[in-house]
Design goal:
about 210 residues; 7 helices; 7 strands; alpha/beta; Rossmann fold
């Protein structure tokens, strides 16, 4: 696994999901926080680019209970719960907006040395969004491997994998850095493996990065 051809993809590692006082906390999710910290440190240590998605909502969102949806109100813009946990807080983030970018702006995004953040509130369609598709296509041109981790298995992580499968790079799921709302992750692991993704542990990843 070549450092210059690898991206770490951090999926929604936000307080409302991972901390016991979070609005959409999954019991036991805090157990993966040390591994999330280790992944972030590894990226900073080696210079691997980190790409993040973050979940944002507003009160009354149709997905939330306040808007008649199934999920508790969580990651509300402007609340502490929307923030990433301390262990994965970006050092130099570049937040992408839902708008058309000029060629010069896209080049600045590609040259950015810090984290690139995709906001789920702005990019709900994600890969089907023309702005994101253009940037992702260029961003992934030199990439062979995408390392994915975060929360939560049944929705956010699964969605990211579905969006990235077939775009070119090999997908690697860090299975000890993924939180789930249920006790059974095996069906998702089987699904992702059948789609061509590979399941690895953090220690296995570390060995590959340094060899």
């Amino acid at each position: 696994m070549k450092i210059e051809a690898t991206i770490f993809y951090d999926v929604d590692t936000q307080r409302d999901f991972l901390l016991p006082d979070g609005k959409c906390y999954m019991p036991g999710a805090e157990k993966i926080v040390p591994v999330l910290a280790a992944l972030t440190d590894l990226a900073h240590e080696t210079g691997v680019r980190i790409v993040c998605s973050v979940d944002h909502h507003v009160t009354g969102d149709p997905l939330l209970k306040s808007g008649g949806g199934p999920y508790p109100d969580h990651c509300i813009v402007g609340t502490p719960g929307e923030r990433k946990i301390d262990e994965t807080t970006p050092r130099n983030p570049l937040f992408l907006e839902n708008r058309k970018y000029s060629s010069d702006e896209i080049q600045r995004i590609l040259d950015h040395q810090g984290e690139i953040i995709f906001d789920r509130y702005q990019f709900e369609a994600f890969v089907r969004n023309a702005h994101v598709r253009a940037i992702l296509r260029l961003l992934l041109q030199p990439i062979n491997d995408i390392v994915i981790y975060g929360v939560y298995t049944e929705v956010c992580v699964d969605r990211v994998i579905t969006e990235l499968i077939g775009l070119g790079p090999k997908l690697h799921l860090v299975k000890d850095a993924i939180a789930t709302a249920s006790n059974d992750r095996s069906s998702f692991f089987e699904k992702w493996t059948q789609q061509g993704a590979q399941l690895i542990t953090f220690e296995e990843l570390r060995v590959r990065i340094f060899n």
